[in-house]
Write a structure and sequence with these properties.
Length: 137
């Protein structure tokens, strides 16, 4: 099974960025832990700060992967285009967030992705990604 993790803007700064919200680990280190834990799954990971690039990666995953774990970060709350890309593809997409977005500012309560996602996992720190992978098993 091939699962692609797609991370959006500022998630390249995990470990340095607001550690009280997002924790002290870089995603690169955490990704190695996921690969070691889920050896029978072909995991790939990309991060982009650019909305259009994220859309292209979502579209490409449709023909190359069995599922997507998507943390579109701030674009979750603003991007009709990313929501449309999730609606357009045939493979399941799990929306994840590190923080509990419903416990934060009101603008983070809105998601353009959730309607089209197979499920949403949020608020468990980086473990949200682990739980999303388990949901595919
Ligand atoms: C986030 C939550 C978003 O509101 C925020 O803009 C992010 C990260 C999360 O994983 O908790 O950048 O998606």
């Amino acid at each position: 099974m091939k699962i692609r993790i797609i991370n959006g803007p500022n998630l390249n700064l995990l470990g340095k960025r607001e550690p009280e919200i997002y924790g002290g680990h870089s995603f690169e280190d955490y990704f190695k832990e996921l690969q070691a834990k889920f050896k029978n799954i072909e995991l790939s990971y990309i991060q982009s700060n650019v909305e259009g690039e994220l859309i292209t990666h979502i579209q490409e995953a449709d023909t190359t992967c069995d599922g997507v774990i998507l943390n579109a970060a701030a674009y979750t709350h603003t991007s009709v285009g990313i929501g449309d890309a999730v609606a357009a593809i045939g493979i399941p997409v799990i929306e994840v967030h590190i923080s509990n977005t419903f416990g934060r500012e009101e603008f983070r309560h809105q998601s353009f992705i959730s309607k089209y996602a197979k499920g949403v996992i949020l608020g468990f720190g980086l473990q949200s990604y682990d739980l999303a992978i388990q949901s595919f098993l």
